[in-house]
Design goal:
Layout (H helix, E strand, L loop, with lengths): L5 E6 L6 H12 L10 E6 L2 H5 L15 H4 L7 H13 L9 E7 L5 E6 L4 H13 L4 E4 L18 E7 L8 H22 L9 E12 L10 E3 L10 E2 L4 E5 L4 E3 L6 E4 L11 E12 L3
Parallel strand pairs: 1-2, 1-3, 3-6, 4-5
Antiparallel strand pairs: 4-6, 7-13, 8-10, 9-12, 10-11, 12-13
This protein binds zinc ion (ZN).
Amino acid sequence: MPSIKHVAITGGTHGNELTGVYLLKHWRNNPVQVCRDSFATELHLANPKAHGHNRRYLDQDLNRQFNWPDLNDHALCGYEQNRAKSLNTLLGPKDEPRVDFVLDLHTTTANMGVTLVVKSDDPLVTGMAFYVKQRLPEVTLFHEPSERMDDNFLISLGRRHGLLIEVGPVPQGLLRWDIYHQTETVVGHCLDYLEAVNRGEALELPAEMPGFRFVQKVQLPENERGELIAMVHPNLQDADYQPIAPGDALFMTLDGQTLPYEGEETLYGAFINEAAYYDRHVGLSLMRPCTIKRSV
Ligand SMILES: [Zn+2]
């Protein structure tokens, strides 16, 4: 396994997710916390303008702009589309990246705790996720592998891909110590893992671990004018990664009537009542449990 020389930590990819933004500020003043002997760590505020406006994005979601055709499409010139091209120059270019690994820091308003989004089956990536979960068993792994050049997430700029760290619940535009500190702890484990890999240490990692795979998003109920007529049901609120069986309550209408889950398969909820998804009236994601295998 070739060694890792350059690691980028990115925050504020969504400008109103302050945890990553403030961790970057903290580490700029205390760089020893993210330094390891065998590689260089760099810190990047990914979407400074959106952060300045305390918004998720100005024109487009930055964390959907990194697939290879879009990075090379100069007709795509919204703020985030240009910002993606700048980050591609800074960290990539994606077809031959300078940076080996990207850790991208996010928060969610949903009660998901720490979720690691594993978008690659590269053993370096799955190994990192397993290493973190081994030390913090409450961590949830979200398995959504894709070809790196097709992946539109920022982490796909890394030569060996990267890991998206999603921590909640925390409202947009504010800080909570517990969320901030959990994120800091996870990043520390990720960097320790890369250091151990570079040193050739024998890591006792399991061959497989449990996770979840995305199945589908569920829309909040609307009337014919496209206005919301219901909200997440109180039984479901904060019940991320719990089973949702056919007939279970999903939504509560404005006048207090329960709307049940009409699917035929018991699935699990995530991003339940995520504020960032209200623009598209998405109420939650449904997930299916899976086993993630670590290729060696
Ligand atoms: Zn985010």
